[in-house]
Amino acid sequence: MDIGMLWFDNDPKSDVMSKVMKAAAYYSNKYGEEPNLCFVHPSMIPEVKTNAGKIAVRSNSTMLPHHFWIGVQQPKITQKI
Predict the structure, then answer these.
(1) Is the dihedral of CA 68, 74, 75, 76 positive or negative?
(2) 20 to 30 A Cα–Cα from 79, which one of 15, 20, 46, 57?
(3) What percent of the chain has pLDDT over 90?
(4) What is the count of structural domains for the chain?
(5) Is residue 79 one of the residues assigned to a domain?
C-alpha cells in the first residue's frame, strides 16, 4: 500500500476489529473506495495476519498503538518480456 489514511482510536470499549471496520467506513465515505488493507501495532492483534471482513489486518512494528494505517493494496502487476 503506497497511499492510505492514518486513523486513531483508543476507545477501550471497542475491540480492534470493530475499530478497523469503523475506520473502513470512514475511508469509504471520504474516498469512495473500499479499503482492503490495514496495518496496526503488533500488540493490538494476536496473530501477524488476520482479517476484519474483507480487510486484511497486518501487524507492523512501525505503527504506534491505537493507530491504524488503512487503504487499498493494489494488485501486483508483473510484466513478461
Answers:
(1) negative
(2) 57
(3) 75
(4) 1
(5) no
For 45-74, the DSSP string reads: -SSSEEEETTEEEEE-TTSPTTEEEEE--P
Query: Is residue 41, in this structure, part of any structural domain at all?
Result: yes
- The pTM for the full model equals 0.86
- DSSP letter assigned to residue 76: P
Residue 37 located in a structural domain: yes
The answer to whether residue 80 is domain-embedded is no
φ, ψ at 50 (rounded to 5°): -155, 175
What does the pLDDT look like over 12-50, one tens digit per residue? 999 999 999 999 999 999 999 999 999 999 999 988 788
Q: Identify whether the C-beta of residue 69 lies closer than 8 Å to the C-beta of residue 38.
A: yes
